[in-house]
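Two records follow; treat each independently.
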Amino acid sequence: MTYSANTVPPHGLNGSNPKPVKTGVLLTNLGTPDAPTTRAVRRYLAEFLSDSRVVGIPKLIWLVILHGIILRIRPARSAKLYQSIWTESGSPLLSISRRQHQKLQELVQQKHPDVVVELAMRYGNPSISEGLKKLRAQGVQRLIIQPLYPQYSAPTTGSTFDAVARELQTWRWVPELHFINNYCDNPLYIEALAASVREHTAEHGLPDKLLVSYHGMPQQYFTDGDPYYCYCLKTSRLLREALGLTDEQVVTCFQSRFGKAQWLQPYTDMTLKGMAEDGVQHVAILSPAFSADCLETLEELEVENRDVFMQAGGKTYHYIAALNDRPDHIAAVYDSIASYLK
């Protein structure tokens, strides 16, 4: 029997001498529209918001709302926001993710020349299915899935697992699989966050308050057992300790809520408004949940929340960039997968 690259057998199955196992790493992030147009954004949102991990409303009811209301209104509005952050390289999230992919591949191959790294997005392109098929075509027999979500949550990391599983269900032979579900307390990740804050304060001074803002989540998801909230608090605590700051100096909050349901609190925008009204004049804000700058950081934090703070009486507002392709961040991601590289 012969085997193609798409039907790689276990070692020695065909009587040949075992060959070294080839390991593949799939680096994943959430995704982005292909273009900052209403049509492209509608296509992206339709995929994203159809995921039951993302929206927990009963499916039939939600699909009526999604296609009858949301996808008729929201794409045009969101397209304008994407246009405000789009660059010559395209979507910031995708262009940054590509740089992360390239730098991680270079770092991995310094010690493991036979390990290959591919990039995929949970929604949009390049898809997880496409990324996995590229690895299979290269003869990969061990898979490491590294979602770039430092704090596990079902709508992000859990959904990525679902997409990986769906693709692997179509493969006759499933390779060895290692799925990294978070790196929220990785020492190198915490130190990279701390270094980014130190670099900022060295230039702009220590703010009255350092806000650590995470993407929001419906409160019900936490009640149902999603540990995301706990992971966020852990990251904030470790960051605060690394910086040597007090509880009063560092505030954890949650952004990007949607709909009328109660989400994790305190809310970032309301926190900023309240601080300004109470006389806080200088804040700096970062979002450790985002491994790459995107709409939620470049527009929501950098623009919308700045306006909230300044209009409420604040004086100085700084957004500290995501870790993106900083060498210390890439080193942290490498450290997250290092024990599975052979």
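The next record belongs to a different protein.
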Amino acid sequence: MLDSLAGTRHRPGLVVTRPDRPRGRGRKPAPPAVATAAAALGIELAQPERLGDVAEQIGRAQPATLVVCAYGALVREPLLSTYEILNVHPSVLPRWRGAAPIERAIMAGDTRTGVSIIRLTAGLDSGPICAQETMPIDPDDTYGTLAGRLATLSARLLIGALDGPRNYVEQTDDGLTYAEKIGPEDRILDPERTPIELARTVRALDPHIGARIETPSLTGGLRVQVAGVAADGGGSGTRPGALGVEDGRLYYGARDGALELVRVQPPGGRPMDAADYIRGHAV
């Protein structure tokens, strides 16, 4: 999105993002992706611990409008009152207000989602809408594939909103849902749920977070990170909560069926096809 904005008359004068954080196996500090993009584009960059720490720097840039996208922290006064702030939210508001709208839409089995451009207010994603457009969620969409399409749509809608004029329409509470932040419990595949529900969870968390299974049938009670699934009705002999092999395919038993595990990642290992996992582990 930053690349798209930089090529228009709305090129940002300042990018504010979060500080570098430890990432990866080595836990070495690494910048957010938007910080890397800003540096490559030659745009002034700030990475404060608190947004209020750069209020004066924002003022010196003399922005006509501020844009917020996935910042991950609350924007408070006096910024809210001082500037018109557009917020890019990847859902069809008021459905899926909150931190994880893409993941929750896939988990819920929604067939459509979209992007809303709203004026930021003190409420959680409750500000008036100036632009909104929907798109389908394909049956095989993961977070990665859907987020990519939503990013393209977001850039187009945002540039149109910045071009103006902006006509705001207040949100209602009709169809309101909240997209709670993904917690550790959301990553565990519960065998009390159906294979279709588990498949949605896997797709919703692939590839950025990853779904997981924990079962005594794994040697030493190890964890497996699930990277892909195919719920096709096989694995009928696998009991709920256990791993099983049928016709050379790996399954996880669930309610009313089983989930085929196409790609898995053992703890400390690399993602691998299920066939490779079966050859190297006792199932």
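Discussion point: The chain has a mean pLDDT of 91. How would you locate this feature using only the token line?
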